[in-house]
Amino acid sequence: PLSLHDALPISYIFKSYSTGNVNSTSSNVGGLIGQLYNTNARVYDSFSHSDVYGNQDVGGLIGYSTSSPYVYRSYSKGYVNGTYAGGSVGYRVSGNFYDVYWDNQTSNRSNGCGRGTCPAAIRGNTTDNMKLQDTFDNWDFVYTWGITYELNDGYPYLIWQGFLSPPGTLCVLDTDCSTNRSEERRVGKECRSRWS
Fold it and tell me: Rounded CA gap, 122 and 17, in Å?
């Protein structure tokens, strides 16, 4: 996980993700970001599937947030364990969050933040709802995100990850001449929509 702090003039995390396990005996431990304390920090369209284990201030997405950074359209689903553990953020001192989600079943956390005030824009959902496109308000499921039950364990994934259609799936390519884009249409089995 990363640490973005005031020593950096401006910091962006854009269309990024993490998987695996994060284990620490320290504090401020997150699935994607350990410490987020930079007024100019921006996190866009990112996710963590990491299981996170730490001592204190442990979050599925971010361990520690202060100095009013901005986080947009991101989610976490990993198991979270530690003192002051939150499904999304371990300790939110400050920070601006927009359309951020966590799985309140797989994380084993009913609270979005371990401590500090947790804004309403950090929302917990069941595993089933986390696998539905309609859950994610203001997310771009054309150019940025994709979602289908057989890819990324059914959770949203980033289009740039380049998932291919499952083996044995028959897909046809339709072209939308008005936008000069092509899309795989479903024929028979499920087929991922992908613009090219």
Answer: 18
Judged by DSSP in three states, 92 sits in strand
* CB contact at 8 A, 83 and 112: no
Separation CA 30–CA 23 (nearest Å): 10
- 124-166: per-residue pLDDT in tens? 999 999 999 999 999 999 999 999 988 999 999 999 998 754 4
Instruction: Quote the DSSP letter at residue 189.
Output: B
Q: Which of 40, 33, 93 is nearest to 63 (CA)?
A: 33
Rounded to an integer, what distance in angstroms lies between the CA atom of residue 138 and that of residue 43?
15
CA–CA separation, 52 and 29 (whole Å) = 7
pTM of this structure: 0.81
Q: Whose structure tokens read 């989610």?
A: 75
Hey, how many other C-beta atoms are within 10 angstroms of the C-beta on 21? 11
